[in-house]
Specification:
Length: 385
């Protein structure tokens, strides 16, 4: 059995598989919602003709997915800036280890910037909970997503982590393609971008026999990445979970909440957006050999990644306003990071979001505090250096 078959249930479609799916995917309500938002008035027949004119996965991405996403982003963002891409080799493969804010757009915006810099698309990890039916899974697979299975029993989780590690190494070593991977499982709902040791441990599971953690990770050409949004369209969704955690309650998602969050993230207002990529983690990993213990080495790698992502993160006015509101001071206001009009606009936006949540009156002060903390966290993390 080939390696491609070994990974068939998690990998993206091959071109031959995609050609069989194109006629089916045109009936997907998810695709039509995105197409209708991007191209008001487009008919199902026009969408079908466009999709069925594609012959490969890359052609589908270049003719359907990314033109539509570009139009959506033009409607929902004020700007998308970037830095660091000029340092990447055109034909190189990288593991972009990233903070995680939006279910879909974090990796999509990365691929847009790779495309602008004449570089191949990266494959991206997506949780199986976000592709609950075959239509959405097919659409994700056509967009070069590979599936990460969540919520499995301990033994199955271990085995799936090994397969995931082997697949990532296969993509980079054999296929010479880049990979986008979040630094943690799920989005950083509280705004704190911290790398989970389990992610780094997973990456090392496919190491050669006797291979050191450092050598295994250096082969992956890890590039830290930070993406920031002036406004998070899903901040209210995230806030519900934060409030429940603060009150020591288990947060249970509503039916279809993940899909609603995906669409809100795509179509909601984001203001300014920035994506920055750093240098390959290489020489800075060498001192970790002296730690000896793999557990200590993995923890140290997490700290290195965190420091890089915090440094790369570009805060916006909303982040500085939130810091001042949280502290009850005017530090960043007095330093000229924003003006009174900016503050009033942010407070109005937050107040509207919280009001629309329909929370009990007793929860409003906590909701405001958590919302401010969510936006303030990236600045506070940068200042820890």
């Amino acid at each position: 059995m080939s390696q491609t078959d070994d990974f068939k249930d998690i990998r993206p479609f091959t071109d031959s598989e995609a050609r069989k799916v194109f006629p089916v995917i045109t009936s997907s309500p998810y695709l039509m919602k995105i197409m209708e938002y991007a191209y008001p008035g487009i008919s199902e027949k026009e969408t079908e003709n466009l999709v069925c004119s594609c012959g490969t996965v890359n052609e589908f991405i270049e003719k359907v997915t990314y033109p539509a996403v570009t139009k959506v982003l033009a409607k929902t963002t004020d700007s998308i800036t970037s830095s660091g891409f000029g340092k990447l080799e055109k034909g190189g493969s990288y593991l972009f280890l990233s903070n995680h804010r939006d279910i879909v757009l974090d990796s999509v915006i990365l691929n847009l910037k790779l495309l602008e810099n004449d570089m191949p698309f990266a494959q991206s990890a997506i949780g199986d909970n976000l592709v609950p039916d075959e239509g959405l899974k097919a659409l994700a697979s056509l967009s070069k997503n590979f599936v990460v299975y969540r919520g499995l029993p301990a033994r199955e989780t271990l085995e799936n982590s090994r397969r995931l590690s082997a697949y990532i190494h296969h993509v980079m070593d054999s296929r010479k393609e880049s990979v986008w991977l979040a630094q943690r499982e799920g989005r950083a709902k509280d705004g704190n971008d911290n790398t989970q040791s389990g992610v780094i441990k997973m990456l090392c599971m496919a190491a050669d026999k006797g291979e050191n953690v450092v050598d295994c990770l250096k082969k992956l050409r890890i590039v830290p990445m930070a993406i920031s949004y002036e406004y998070d369209p899903n901040d209210a969704y995230k806030l519900r979970g934060l409030i429940a955690n603060e009150k020591h309650q288990k947060y249970v998602k509503c039916k279809g909440e993940d899909l609603s969050s995906i669409l809100t993230g795509i179509t909601g207002r984001k203001g300014h957006v920035n994506i920055s990529v750093g240098n390959i983690l290489y020489d800075e990993l060498d001192p970790l050999r002296d730690l000896g213990n793999p557990v200590k080495q993995i923890r140290a790698v997490c700290s290195i990644v965190d420091e890089a992502i915090h440094a790369l993160y570009k805060p916006f006015k909303t982040n500085y306003i939130a810091c001042d509101l949280l502290a009850g001071k005017e530090k960043y206001y007095s330093e000229g990071y924003y003006d009174e009009a900016d503050r009033q606009a942010f407070v109005a936006r937050i107040s509207d979001s919280i009001e629309n949540m329909g929370l009990p009156a007793d929860d409003i002060p906590l909701a405001r505090e958590k919302m401010f903390s969510m936006y303030a966290a990236p600045v506070l993390n940068k200042e820890k250096k």
